[in-house]
Amino acid sequence: MVTRFQDLAEVCRVLEQTAKRNEKIEKLSDFLNKLDGSETQAVVLMIAGKVFSEADERVLEVSGATLWKILQKSRQRQTSLVARPLTILEVQRCFSEIAAVTGPRSRSRKESILESLLGQANSLEAEYIVRILHDEMRIGVVEGVMLNGIAEACEIPDELVRRALMMLGDLGEVARLAFAGGKEALEQVNISLFRPVRLMMAEMAHEISEVLSEHESGTAFEFKFDGARIQIHKKGQEIRIFSRRLTDVTESLPDLVETVQRTIQADEALIDGEVVAIASDMKPLPFQELMRRFRREREITRIAREIPLRLHLFDILYLNGRQLVDLSYDARWSLLSSICPQEILAERIVTNDLSEIQAFLTKAVTAGHEGLMAKALNSPYLLGARGKNWFKIKPSERLDLMIVAADWGYGRRSGWLSNYHLAVRDESTGDFLEVGKTFKGLTDDEFDWMTKRLQELKTSEDKYTVWVKPTTVVEVAYNEIQRSPHYKSGLALRFARIARIREDKRPEDADTITKMRAQFEKQFEHKGKISEALG
Ligand code: AMP
User: Fold this and answer.
1) Topology of 201-393 in CATH?
2) Residue 394 alpha carbon, nearest atom of ligand 1
3) Which spans in 121-157 are helix H?
4) What pLDDT is attached to residue 82?
5) Mutational test site, ligand 1, from 200, 201, 224, max ligand atoms within 8 Å of CB
6) Architecture in CATH of 397-524
7) Rounded to the nearest whole angstrom, what is the distance from the C-alpha of residue 12 to the centroid of ligand 1?
8) Where exactly are the structural domains of the chain?
9) Are strands 309-319 and 348-350 parallel, antiparallel or unpaired?
10) Rounded to 10 degrees, what is the CA torsion of 26, 31, 36, 38?
């Protein structure tokens, strides 16, 4: 049996219009059940808005602008005569073909495959193909819904499907196993070296007292390094390093591989840690500099010399044939410390004394780190879970910014103007300069309120965006200010979130570009700097 892509597109439309989680799960599971086994993996990925599975390193390299250009062209040309219906597997094959094109004229060859695909698609199909390719699926089938859908379709407990995903890190692969081998196949899934797992995450703590009352068995406080999360897999001499997104980044980080080889005294291990770029004075460099190391494909040795890395390890999940995730944090820390030297372990203290914790936080920030992590001593390692066993404690920065435009939301946020373009005031010209966008921080009632208000302030609009008179001030919390080639202001916020709507403030009370530039510079007070000239 072969399923038409039209059927998938129709289901996506239905899922998008279904608000209730349970109904979504039921519709999803009905559809998954009707598919041929060979189609399940592709469908699960497409509905989740992914072109390839997570572990798959292939990329399409087709820009958003190109996509829209081809879509417009195919719309103009579209006839009502579509000779033969497109199938799901044909669409998937085209994605693979596009990714496989490399070398001279690859751009136009990619475009022509896409043109012919969209030429065969009707308008509903074309819309979903473009949304998958452009990472704009957002039909409210978040990962949890997909997991429940697979569980229901295969009659497997939800928890087992979740566990398999955390260990395999790959939704498509979990779906394939669940449909092919059912419950037994998922029960066999375990941590295996060189297969990246989903790492444990932390919740934000607002007060240190909150941490102490949550962690009854005691807390370890570690520096929270401002770097990139990595997991290191080691078996004998073979070492592989995976990024937070579970991509294999070993080739870009030969110096780190060498450090692991030199320092880790274990035959087999899976270790969790953070890597930070450092300046010549050993102070951590801003995150952007580190990312230049991660994306590097050429001149790796030169850039490794210019931007050295420092490793900070804080957990161990597997050691010499033994899975450790069910052990307590305390026990895992002992094992970790037994196989590596002190200097690559995260700096930490175990205490419940407020002034000691405060002093340790100050020490972390003064050393150029982000803050602290607070970890419950008795907690197991919960793969992929974000919870109160790990808290992050950061002194966050804030700016009062203007909303100058907003994009219409998708999925759960459809019907709301929910993605806000934020701007600072340029006091020399009176202009407002964009510095970022966010859809985070508002409650449903506030989204409602904001949508109405912004529509009243509308100055122009297109299909996706409404531009407004800049009169709404919001207090925005953020993690870091970065340089931006994209915005005219030259600066962009990282991890912006609306902390409060400031109805009490007028546009002239919004923060200025001068203040933001000063905040940007302040970030370097405790950080290393790198020469602007480095390529
Ligand atoms: P956030 O990205 O703000 O949610 O904070 C969680 C991230 O902090 C983790 O994913 C790690 O990349 C990073 N991190 C830095 N230091 C530590 C640490 N000592 N323990 C755990 N995570 C850490």
Assistant:
1) D-amino Acid Aminotransferase; Chain A, domain 1 (3.30.470)
2) 3
3) 123-133, 143-154
4) 56
5) 224
6) Beta Barrel (2.40)
7) 35
8) 5-187, 201-393, 397-524
9) unpaired
10) -80
Q: Positive or negative, the Cα torsion across 510, 513, 517, 520?
A: positive
Distances (CA, A) of 67 to 49, 92, 532: 15, 16, 34
Tokens 């806000």 found at: 420
Of the listed ranges 48-57, 328-337, 512-521, the one predicted with least confidence = 48-57
In the predicted structure, residue 322 carries a pLDDT above the cut 60 = yes
**Between these two residues, 28 and 61, which has the higher pLDDT value?**
28
Nearest-atom index, ligand 1, CA of 224 = 16
- What pLDDT shows up at residue 525? 73
Q: Residue 236's CB: how many other CB atoms inside 10 A? A: 7
Q: Does residue 128's CB lie within 6 angstroms of at least one atom of ligand 1?
A: no
* Spacing, Cα 13 to ligand 1 middle (Å): 37
CB of 274 closer than 6 angstroms to any ligand 1 atom: yes
The finding on whether 202 has its CB within 6 A of some atom of ligand 1 is: yes
Catalytic residue positions, numbered: 224
Residue type, 57: E
How would CATH label the architecture of 5-187? Orthogonal Bundle (1.10)
Beta-strand runs (E) in 291-336? 309-319, 322-323
What is the C-alpha to C-alpha distance for residues 295 and 247, in angstroms, rounded to an integer?
Answer: 11
Q: Kindly give, in sequence order, each residue whose CB lies less than 8 Å from that of residue 383, ignoring residues fewer than 6 positions away.
A: 163, 166, 167, 197, 198, 199, 200, 325
Q: Is the CB of 272 under 6 A from ligand 1?
A: no
Give the mean model confidence (pLDDT) for residues 7-31.
95
- pLDDT surpasses 90 at 170: no
CA distance 236 to 231: 16
